[in-house]
## 1
Amino acid sequence: MKQAVLITFAVAVAVLLGVVLMQARPVSAAGAGAAPALEIKNPFAGNTAAVKEGETIFDAKCAECHGGDAMGGSGPDLTDDKWIHGGSDTEVFATVSGGRKGGMPSWKGELKDEEIWKVIAYIRSLHK
Ligand code: HEC
């Protein structure tokens, strides 16, 4: 009887330890890298097929404000090095997904994350 209690206790400790270790692992892995943990990279960067799909989406949803060649209209030029809201993948994704106060609509409900990344891959391909 006492032995059963001890075994139960030991198993509980082992399980708890396992949970703690599993949660600790990603933290130490992220700490070892040089890049900030929250920086996201475009999974479609440089992917020719994705760039082509991104162009179709851009022409349908974005060109009316940013111009057919993304060089600006009522919305800013997206092919230069000037970024109001930051030009990293993480920042551009946040802009397109969540929208920005200055008149940039949110596309979260209308475009899948994957489609947003493809549009960004297309925008990158136009960089001058
Ligand atoms: C209704 C017009 C409109 C549409 C449609 C639109 N945008 Fe915008 N967009 C804007 C405006 C206006 C801004 C500038 C917001 C500001 O000044 O803060 C902007 C800003 C941006 C920025 C940030 C630029 C910077 O310098 O930081 C990105 C990136 C962007 N748009 C991408 C897109 C993409 C991709 C689409 C299509 C999915 C799109 N936009 C559709 C009007 C639009």
## 2
Amino acid sequence: MTELKGYAGKIAKVDLGSGKLTTVDTQKYADKYIGGRGIATRMYFEEVMPEVRAFDPENSLYFMTGPLSGTLGTGSGRVSLVSKSPQSYPVESICDSNCGGDFGPYLKFAGFDGLAVTGKADSPSYLYIEDGNMEILDASDLWGLGTYETQRKIWRKHGPESKVYVIGPAGEKLARIAIIQHQSGNAFGQGGFGAVMGSKNLKAIVVKGTGSLEVADPKKLIDLRLYSNELISPVKFGETTGGFKKKPFVNSAGYFQHWLDEGSFWTGWHTYEKEGIAKLGNSSCFGCPFSCQTTMKWSDDVKKKHGLEDGSTTCFEAWGYYQQWYKYADIDVPQFKWNQVLNDYGLNSVEVTALYWLIEKGRAEGILTAENTGWPIELMGTEKYDIKANELSNMGFIEKHLLDIGNRVGFGYQVSEGMSRLIDYIDSEPKFGPNRKKLRYWYNTLYPKAGSFADGYRTHFNQIHFGPMFYATMMYQIVAQRDPETKHVDNGFFNPFAYQANIKNATGCQPESETWYKMVSTLMKRYTGTDKAATPPGFEDAEVVAKWFWRMNLETDMLPLCDWLMQDLRAVRFWSVWTEDGFGDMELGKKFYNAITGNNLSQEEIWEKTEAVFTLERAIACREGRRAKDDVYNMDWYDYGKQVGCAAEGAPGGGVVGLNGRTFEPDKLQIVVEKFYTLLGWNSDGIPTKHRLEELGLSDVAEDLKKRAVL
Ligand code: SF4
């Protein structure tokens, strides 16, 4: 076929061991794998063999943009990263992560659609890319620095227009929960990929790009952008609904600004603003009209006295330390300080947040103490900020535990290995007392996946509680190669449906109401062709819905589109107040793709490509050892959910979704799993069949599996 537009044309390949810098033609992959997670997964298949461990030099990091990156494609500023994950437990396996910001578009302006990094440098290094040129530079003066100071130093040297991915001390020291930070509010959070960079002696990747991209149909692209801006706007001008004083915004107020409006529960910031402690604003990833990130500019007094830095934050980072189940606190100075230190060390905030739940339970049972952790855990949650006196108190726990985790010292070392390995350690250590195995139960409630692959903090209870769809949501995420949290569940299932209750809350459409069930059924039928899974007990056709969501979410990672924007916070693919029937535009991504590339694909054709990537990912996981026995849940998680009967902690609109009389039957889930395998063309052990791989144009993958006696 003719060359697709919208791509920069080359993928940079860097071997840090030999210093060899080469490129491959993006068109080799573009048609079949589109971009982002698609191309990254294919390259991983070709180059990272199953016997390679996460910290081996032979492991590679595939940072990949897509055809929409760097264009007017709405919410296309995100980048996918695929590599072998050190966080995956107990088997290190393929995993993906995703980061917003503006690195990806500028990588394309510099002439590269992606970056494949392998090998290990002899000494601390960073990669510098500028307009088609690549260099490996000495990072000895950066090694050991936090992510903020490293970025500042790089900006001083290469100019403030440089876009930087960076690791902190946690990544350098190979913490399995190390992230790759970008600016102050974006990161590749899941996967532990900061430690993979650390294992390669790679401190940072810096890009400067001044080039441009050619798109197939510029006029159509501009029209589409204007159309999508309108779809995204949450309310028509001047409208006020529900508990929020809503206002139209495009390129202005964002998510937390929205929540911070009068009537919301986070009122502390209003006090901070009134008292001159901080000023709020918004920022966004490249090309996003939604601006979900809240920026804080602290007063000079606060900065000076408490070492706070200006920065931005979204969602979890804004309140993760306090967690709603622990103490539903307002966003405040101690919380922000926690987030800043965490970012500076380069640690995964979601994973560390799970720790507080374990400590809370552990200290109540006498399992975790100040003596056996070395931390003043009695101070956890007692931190205070006195506005008038500008005084912080009781910060001892925050300061000490983050220092130890970031530097991998004492109990902090065990935490830096990730919660799954931590719980094994506690189990095995008599110093935690005779009750120590009780913590396993709490761990299981937080980490519901019980197989040998891709565990992770669940964040919410959505999988079991949300509406009648929990068989579909469980099926969807049970086979995922990473944690069962927001990326794959909330953004795919929960919020598209729940969010409509927020948009339409003025009409009484609350979760669990009759109107709500009707809307969920209508939506499911419209998009997946069946509404059976929307009706209790919900296991019928659950596999069909799960497959549909897999396709959709792969598409967002391949084009790319931001799933927060498209499926979650704004859910513009599902809902819009601007359309007559209230539905959004599910085909928005396809429309952008065709206008940019000049291709002319139907939605079904795009989804076939996404299914090929999903199947390829599964085939890779299988060659790394994954089987049907790994597609399971632990039941502690379900039992606890049943006890608390609450799912949608902090969901937009504040809705609380209970089980509402629904029951979960493990046997039924097993039936759904088997049907899902059949639907996807996998055998009874969860391995893609030769026939299906060939149908999807993956004959070489089938041959590889055969050669390795997997098939
Ligand atoms: S919604 Fe937020 S995360 Fe998504 S592209 Fe926009 S600013 Fe970035």
## 3
Amino acid sequence: MSEMERTRRSKRRVVGGLTATIGGLVLLVSVLKAPVGNTAEIPSDQVERGLAISPVPVDLTGKDRDLVGLGSYIVNAHGACNDCHTNPSFAEGHDPFLGQPEQINRFGYLAGGVPFGPFVSRNLTPNAQGKPAGLTLDQFLETIHTGKDQKNRHPQISPLLQVMPWPVYGKMSDRDLGAVYEYLRSIPSHRFSLGVPGVPGSQLTLTQGNPPTLTFSLPGVNRDGETNVPSLKGVGLILKAQVVGSQIELVTEAGRFVSRDGFIYQKAAP
Ligand code: HEC
């Protein structure tokens, strides 16, 4: 073996050893970096696309941006959650199925209320504690993996969710389902709390849906909407509550009332 050949060989050995060491280090670093149960890197193109296509603004405070982006990608580009959980799915005049320029109904986005026979899709937006559909992450994972209805809404029919394609979604990894949960945590809540001017401690909560549900904690107002609060006197029964643009409209025996600046009950022009 010539001098040159020997040098070349030992160089090759050093390079080979180095490559193996670097390979080992890379493996070690990626194992250390990966959260439990998560072996794959989150693809940044999906994160960015997910953030770009969310039909509603996301609140990233205290959230993991990558997970929110991936979650939006799964919800809005794969999962079709909007098809069943937004009522109606598209803004007026913006239904792509009618050849109109698409615009998702941002105001009712994932707020549920779509009837399927005896079943009604649920409000997936965060509750007052920031929990999507009022579920913890563990409950959410269990729901999607097993179909268990944590609210047991129709025990006479089944303890399991019907219509909802959990047998399909349940095959996602916990990392991906966790991303869906993180996205749902970041979207606007569709439970409205309004105060009534001049009535201390008053609170009126409207949960979007079809029909919307209205709950009162208003001194002097009962659950049927009858009132003896002076500023509400004469309102009578609330016949219908609906969201119009960014306002809440109440149709009562006494006429039409809309919310303004977070307060409700200013009589609107008939
Ligand atoms: C084919 C229609 C359909 C699609 C698509 C759909 N859902 Fe549902 N979902 C429903 C219905 C209906 C219910 C309520 C079922 C019942 O009451 O048995 C429900 C219930 C749920 C619940 C239970 C909530 C609770 O209050 O406990 C969760 C969570 C949920 N869906 C999440 C999702 C997510 C996330 C997606 C998209 C990845 C999605 N759904 C897509 C129809 C659908």
